[in-house]
Design a protein that fits this description.
Chain A: It comes from Franzmannia qiaohouensis. Chain A: This is Hsp20/alpha crystallin family protein. Chain A: It holds the Pfam family HSP20. The complex is a heterodimer of chains A (153) and B (132). Chain A has 153 residues and is mainly β. Chain A has helices at 11-14, 18-26; strands at 45-50, 54-60, 69-74, 77-84, 99-102, 107-114, 125-129, 132-138. Helices cover 8% and strands 33% of the residues of chain A. In chain A, the strands form 2 sheets. In chain A, strands 1-2-8-7 form a 4-stranded antiparallel β-sheet, with no helix packed on it. Chain A has a 3-stranded antiparallel β-sheet with strand order 3-4-6, with no helix packed on it. The longest helix of chain A has 9 residues, at 18-26. Helix content of chain B is 14%, strand content 43%. Chain B is built from 2 helices and 9 strands; from the N terminus they run ααβββββββββ. The longest helix of chain B is centred in the first third of the chain and has 10 residues, at 12-21. Classes of the chains: A mainly beta (153), B mainly beta (132). Chains A and B meet through β1, β2 and β5 of A and β1, β2, β3 and β6 of B. β1 (45-50) of chain A pairs antiparallel with β6 of chain B, so a sheet runs across the interface.
Chain lengths: 153, 132
């Protein structure tokens, strides 16, 4: 479902090799980036979807336990705050050992996203499974779609 | 050169299979570092469960593949997507020092840790200097 959106600026280049990425940076393809696109490597990545009843926010935060992420809503802005501990291999004892790749982000992060109007923050719920947090924000009753029956005259 | 051609032919069915699924594959971010007796690989694969993860060593190539399992209700419309794909995939060539039979892995909160033990004769060994 999310595959048809191109909100992640660098998604196509992500699969390509470093040389291609370098070329793309030097000669950008001129396509307009989405206004809300984030740079490559942002952590955590976020998907937002809506249904008739609610707005669902999926936060892809691998390595965070449920207690590691704080989720706040104020004035229709959802703020995600947390800290991801660096993996072993960063401590004193193993510092002398070679590190070949370090692509994973660690440390503190804050991300904020604006939500659509008309959500009921009081009834919001959050779930966590396998490093993905799902925040469900129900719509207020008056904003749910309604079918209007046509009366026979 | 010949060797490369040979390998390509050999793995053609697999290559075709990969080609069909390729557009949706995301590249997981990884950390790779070395311990005295093993190489460690840590990969971020949020949404991948133990059952949807597929690890394989073939011809000294380690492939990580994982399907993102999200329980999404019917009738959702996407508003914003930074993760636009259903699966993660990445491949690494192993060096000959890795004991491929003894590779072990675990996945915890969407973080995959793979331990690639070194063969006995490649481990770091400290040699004690004896007093004369």
């Amino acid at each position: 479902m999310f595959g048809d959106l191109k909100r992640f600026d660098t998604a196509p280049a992500q699969r390509l090799d470093w040389f291609r990425q370098l070329i793309d940076e030097v000669f950008p393809d001129g396509r307009a980036a989405d206004i809300r696109a984030v740079p490559r490597g942002s952590f955590p990545m976020i998907n937002v979807a809506r249904s008739d009843e609610a707005v669902h926010v999926y936060v892809f935060a691998a390595g965070l336990a449920p207690d590691d992420l704080s989720i706040d809503i104020q004035d229709n802005v959802l703020t995600l705050r947390g800290r991801r501990e660096p993996v072993a291999g960063n401590d004193e004892q193993s510092r002398a050992r070679p590190v070949f790749r370090r692509e994973r982000a660690s440390g503190e992060f804050v991300r904020a996203i604006a939500l659509p109007d008309g959500l009921d923050a009081e009834r919001a719920e959050a779930r966590h499974a396998n490093g993905v947090f799902e925040v469900v924000l129900p719509k207020r009753e008056e904003l749910k779609p309604r079918r209007i029956e046509v009366q026979v005259a | 050169m010949n060797e490369v051609v040979h390998q390509t032919q050999q793995s053609q069915p697999e290559a075709q299979r990969n080609e069909n699924r390729e557009p949706a594959a995301l590249l997981p971010a990884v950390d790779i570092f070395e311990h005295a007796d093993a190489l460690m690989l840590i990969a971020d694969m949020p949404g991948v469960t133990r059952d949807s993860l597929h690890l394989e060593v073939d011809n000294n190539v380690l492939s990580l593949e994982g399907e993102i399992q999200l329980s999404m209700p019917e009738g959702l419309t996407a508003l914003h997507a930074e993760v636009s794909g259903q699966r993660f995939a990445r491949r690494f060539t192993l060096s000959h020092e890795v004991e491929s039979e003894a590779i072990s892995a675990r996945i915890d909160n969407g973080v995959l840790s793979v331990t690639l033990p070194k063969k006995d004769n490649h481990r770091v060994r400290r040699i004690e200097v004896k007093a004369a």
